[in-house]
Amino acid sequence: MALHRFNLLERRLERNPELKVDYHKFMAEYLSLGHMRRVPIDGEKYSGSYYLPHHPVLKEASTTTKIRVVFDGSVKNFTGYSLIDALLVGPVVQDDLLSIILRFRTFLVGDIAKMYRQVLIHPNDTSLQRILWRFDAADPIETYELLTVTYGLSPSSFLATRTLQQLAVDEGREYSLGAPALQQNFYVDDFIGGAQSVEEAVQLRTELSELLAKGCFELRKWASNQLSVLSGLTSEQIGTQSAIKFNDNEMVKALGITWEPETDNLRFDSKIFQRNSPPTKRSILS
């Protein structure tokens, strides 16, 4: 199945050169960062291994990566089970979404770059995260193993968020603001919190960045309703268009909600379709 899906993928990429360039760039980065490795031919033991088909997902709204490669652990093998069927999900270890969204009143937001991919999988288990890949159609298809927590598998969210919680326990003693924020103000990789003053917000931002760096996590896309909170950051670390002044109609996406930092307003954007029939509560909700 993985080989069949890979052949379909290659034909799709050949029909779309722009997508092919982006897909190859994504996979090359995966390899160069050490997030996957090529499996030597003599190391290909099929017993106890699982091959993940993969495909692209376009993210037009993203300000960083427009394309994400998704690895499909839902494909059933000859036993009738998939990798997802065999994995436990794990408990939720972060605060619930509603509690975090209600903290928008103390606005300071950011997110962790490539959070899942900063967490290594135990070497005993990487054979369950194999893929087929080649960078040139003239080369033989090779086997690679994904070495980090992989987006789309059942326990991935737990493994990554539980790692953040442990980081706060292991390294948080020196960070009076950063450690509690790491434990209470993250929803997966999104930080939403704030402070009662600009000075405290800057200290919180600094402590969080330093604490997460101890686990090799990078905080980026910082945004605030007070631009002075962003002072000292590079343009690559800031989630708004400018750190000097807000642009007209400046908007930031956080947890699916659109935020206008200058006016501190929250918005829900939706596409409204014209209907010939009278509107009903059901159609409006839909």
Reconstruct the topology from this structure.
Elements: H1 2-15, H2 17-32, E1 36-38, E2 54-58, E3 67-71, H3 83-86, H4 97-101, E4 108-112, E5 130-133, E6 142-146, H5 156-171, H6 178-184, E7 186-187, E8 190-193, H7 198-213, E9 219-224, E10 252-254, E11 257-260, E12 265-267, H8 281-285
Helix pairs in contact: 1-2, 5-6, 6-7
Report on this model:
The chain is of the alpha+beta class and 286 residues long. It has two domains: 114 residues, Roll (HIV Type 1 Reverse Transcriptase, Chain A, domain 1); 112 residues, no CATH class. Helices cover 29% and strands 17% of the residues. The strands form four sheets. A four-stranded antiparallel sheet has the order 7-8-4-9. Strands 1-6-5 form a three-stranded antiparallel sheet. Strands 10-11-12 form a three-stranded antiparallel sheet, with no helix packed on it. A hairpin with a 2-residue loop joins strand 7 and strand 8. Helix 1 packs across helix 2, helix 5 packs antiparallel against helix 6 and helix 6 crosses helix 7. The longest helix has 16 residues. The mean pLDDT is 87.
Main β-sheet description: 4 strands, antiparallel
Radius of gyration: 22 Å
Number of domains: 2
Distance between the termini: 36 Å
How many runs of DSSP E, i.e. beta strands? 12
Give the CATH architecture of the largest domain. Answer: Roll
Largest sheet: spatial strand order? 7-8-4-9
Count of helical segments? 8
The percentage of residues in β strands lies in 15-25%
CATH class of the largest domain: Alpha Beta
Unreliable stretches, pLDDT < 50, 5 or more residues? none
How do the helices and strands follow one another from N- to C-terminus?
Answer: HHEEEHHEEEHHEEHEEEEH
CATH fold type of the largest domain: HIV Type 1 Reverse Transcriptase, Chain A, domain 1
Mean pLDDT: 87
Helix content, binned percent: 25-40%
Class from secondary-structure proportions: alpha+beta
| Net shape | globular
